[in-house]
Amino acid sequence: MISRYSRPEMREIWSEENKLRLWLKVELLTAEALAKEKVIPAQEFKILKAGIEECMKDVPKLLERARELEKTLNHDVVAFTTAVAEKINNRASRWLHYGLTSSDVIDTAFAVQTTQSADLLIKDVKQLLPVIARRAKQYKNTPCIGRTHGIHAEPITFGFKLAVMYDEFGRGLARLQRAREIAAVGKISGAVGTNAHLSPKIETYVCKKLGLRPASISTQIVPRDIHAEFQTTLALIGTSIERWAIEFRHLQRTEVLETEEPFTKGQKGSSAMPHKRNPITWERLSGLARVLRGNAWAALENVALWHERDISHSSVERIIFPDSCALLDYMLHLLIQLMDGLNVYPDNMAKNLNESLGLWHSQTIMLALIRKGLTREQAYEIVQRNAMKTWAAKHAGRDDAHFLQTIKADPDISAFFAPSELETLCSLESHFKYINYRFKTVGIIKDGK
């Protein structure tokens, strides 16, 4: 099973044809290693190799035959090896799958599919980061209100918000790279992992040729905590996508409208209300992130298996790995499109910033009073009292309801400051003096550029 959201490159990785191609490769490399060890006679290896290579030339036909055999055999790997042996049609086929157990082939090929998927996802994030960086630099000095609990807090710039996003996906890239390394584990160690019939040298040879490292120790399977870690990494990156989807959904609300997802020509927002421009794509990303987390939970459930293995993990992985990789690939590409075409409304940001009438200067004035000699408790009480007056005046609809005018009129404050000093304190610039520094620390700009 693979998601309807899958793109062709990812769909190919998790196709049955690619899986069988990798199974053939594992079988061939194992035989090659055995031939080098003089276990398989050179002439028979030559015949075996030719037969496997013939299968590789027409994998769809091999798959068709294997499926036909599986109806009777009820075992996918045995059906596969039987179909290959038929193609070899020679005594040399006795060396096919020699010393191997099914999971040697399945898990080692699965590791290759996982690393192939990780490579695509890493590429996706590397495409996303410069898009976010470009938009962050574009709005580096565009003031907007910062919100905590959904309530106006202190000013930031929209570029600063996007720099936070950039840094988060930088961590996501690092996690994906680590997850790829962790998942790149194969095993050719036999039915319970003891290498009873094939030496570790064979395992090392096969894994190296496939770009994997051999498991330091395994049972019949590669331990599933490795696969769970990969899945939780995908889920975490998906959750980062949802975190920003929620942010931009809030910013698109009619009464906020600081940003808006692209609305293309001819697009319809509602079947009932022609005026609607809804954040449907951000909502789609929020929903798909839930699927990734659910799949990660299923991967965690796969860790606890019976003894040296059971097969309960297998059916789960056939669904969650193709789907999670396909979903995250799709989500990242959708996020790139959204960030590239995001509509940004600086005028609305300025309007919303002014809605709280300068109350976001409250901490600045409190700290200034502390520097003048007041205790924190005294300063807090004076500033809060004036803030509440400002709120009350705003709710009453008074035109003079501005925090700066309110504190100027309070002798408990004006006694400490000249009017021009209060004007300077209540400026936006003081909030933005380290914006360039933060852009440098996350790597968006260098040397101020």
Number of H- or I-type helical stretches: 18
Identify the CATH homologous superfamily of the largest domain.
Answer: Fumarase/aspartase (Central domain)
Separation of the first and last Cα atoms: 47 Å
How much helicity do the residues have? 55-70%
Instruction: Tell me the β content.
Output: under 5%
Overall average residue pLDDT: 94
Question: Outline of this structure?
Answer:
The protein has 18 helices and 6 strands. It has 449 residues and is mainly α.
Explained architecture:
There is one protein chain. The chain is mainly alpha-helical and 449 residues long. The protein folds into three domains: 86 residues, Fumarase C, Chain B, domain 1 (Orthogonal Bundle), CATH 1.10.275; 229 residues, Fumarase/aspartase (Central domain) (Fumarase C, Chain A, domain 2, Up-down Bundle); 67 residues, Ribonucleotide Reductase Protein R1, domain 1 (Orthogonal Bundle). 64% of the residues lie in helices and 5% in strands. The chain contains 18 helices and six strands. Strands 1-2 form a two-stranded antiparallel sheet. Strand 1 and strand 2 form a beta hairpin. The longest helix is centred in the first third of the chain and has 37 residues.
Index terms:
two-stranded antiparallel ribbon; two-stranded parallel ribbon; Fumarase C, Chain B, domain 1; 449 residues; 5% strand; Ribonucleotide Reductase Protein R1, domain 1; Fumarase C, Chain A, domain 2; mainly alpha
Task: Spell out the blueprint of helices and strands.
Layout: H1 8-13, H2 16-36, H3 42-57, H4 59-73, H5 76-88, H6 102-138, E1 143-148, E2 151-157, H7 158-183, E3 185-186, H8 200-209, E4 213-214, H9 225-251, E5 259-260, H10 280-301, H11 312-341, E6 343-344, H12 346-355, H13 362-371, H14 376-395, H15 403-408, H16 411-414, H17 419-425, H18 435-441
Parallel strand pairs: 3-4
Antiparallel strand pairs: 1-2, 5-6
